[in-house]
Amino acid sequence: MSDLSRTVPQEQLPSEDLHPLPMPVINLGHLSLDSATRSRVVNDIAKACRGLGYFQVINHGISQSVMDCAVKAASDFFELPNEAKEEFSSEDLRQPVRYDTSSKDSISMSRAFLKHYAHPLSDWIQYWPQKPPIYREYMGKYAAEVRRLALQLMEAMLEGLGLGKEYLDEKFQEGSQLLSVNCYPKASQCDTTIGLAPHSDYGFLTILLTSCRGLEVVDRSSNIWKTVQQLPHALHVHIGDHMEVLSNGRMKTVVHRALLNPEEARISIASIHGFALHEKVTCAKELVDEENPPKYKESSFSDFLDHLTANMDNKHRNFLDSLRM
Ligand code: OGA
Ligand code: NI
């Protein structure tokens, strides 16, 4: 985050309608081609991560029907009567499944969400909603595929940082996956135009699937909000807090928010990937030297949940700021 975006409240940053082209679009099919092509794609990913902090992927191997089915499962869930959804309401952030609609978390301005863990799937799926009947099957299939994609992207990012794609492989394989399944009303149905207030995600990376336009990111070079275009069949990827820590600041977390869409209600599914609950993330020692001392304290996903719980009703939510040395 640049100094300006730290001092100017993010709500007050100007907004520009569309991200100017070229928005980085990475063809992931090229990752499995010859080594020269792979290196080029790894460089493109690393460049996007060090510059903007976000990009989109096409040819990512997840079929349109798997993505459509996940959106349908989410949308059918949110259409259930309130009693069926409220069964999953809880103030305890550590519940395996959690539904909420209010702004108790101080960032959900106008959003209903269902959050649940997804990896290892066989441990968590038993807690997921049984209604609608398709939910577990459709969301489970998407969750497994998006995780495979996250690991592939993580390898490329680690390679791009010069750490090698096997870096901490076991910890990534055993890592957590949190699905944040969001439902935003059509803009005209609300007083506000903001669905989800500015924040960054805690993990290494987030992969976002959305039914229509609404995501905005802070562009670091100009400090203005950019609407992220909705490219057909693409998935949006952005860097989270723990990637900034691991890379010792070479890659920066992305501040983003969701606006309500004026034309339609919107579903989004954010898949957030981190280490296992208690595994600490530190600045990679390979990226620390005299000129680049460690910039962040170590922390785990569990520390993040503690931070959120302690800051539930005030504005000191910024987890990354609490880690800066
Ligand atoms: C999130 C998130 C953005 C969106 O769930 O963390 O940032 O467009 N979602 O719904
Ligand atoms: Ni987010």
TrEMBL record:
<dbReference type="InterPro" id="IPR005123">
    <property type="entry name" value="Oxoglu/Fe-dep_dioxygenase_dom"/>
</dbReference>
<keyword id="KW-0479">Metal-binding</keyword>
<feature type="compositionally biased region" description="Polar residues">
    <location>
        <begin position="1"/>
        <end position="13"/>
    </location>
</feature>
<dbReference type="InterPro" id="IPR027443">
    <property type="entry name" value="IPNS-like_sf"/>
</dbReference>
<feature type="region of interest" description="Disordered">
    <location>
        <begin position="1"/>
        <end position="20"/>
    </location>
</feature>
<dbReference type="Pfam" id="PF03171">
    <property type="entry name" value="2OG-FeII_Oxy"/>
</dbReference>
<keyword id="KW-0560">Oxidoreductase</keyword>
<dbReference type="InterPro" id="IPR026992">
    <property type="entry name" value="DIOX_N"/>
</dbReference>
<dbReference type="GO" id="GO:0016491">
    <property type="term" value="F:oxidoreductase activity"/>
</dbReference>
<feature type="domain" description="Fe2OG dioxygenase">
    <location>
        <begin position="174"/>
        <end position="275"/>
    </location>
</feature>
<dbReference type="GO" id="GO:0046872">
    <property type="term" value="F:metal ion binding"/>
</dbReference>
<protein>
    <recommendedName>
        <fullName>Fe2OG dioxygenase domain-containing protein</fullName>
    </recommendedName>
</protein>
<dbReference type="InterPro" id="IPR050295">
    <property type="entry name" value="Plant_2OG-oxidoreductases"/>
</dbReference>
<dbReference type="Pfam" id="PF14226">
    <property type="entry name" value="DIOX_N"/>
</dbReference>
<comment type="similarity">
    <text>Belongs to the iron/ascorbate-dependent oxidoreductase family.</text>
</comment>
<keyword id="KW-0408">Iron</keyword>
<dbReference type="GO" id="GO:0031418">
    <property type="term" value="F:L-ascorbic acid binding"/>
</dbReference>
<dbReference type="InterPro" id="IPR044861">
    <property type="entry name" value="IPNS-like_FE2OG_OXY"/>
</dbReference>
<keyword id="KW-0847">Vitamin C</keyword>
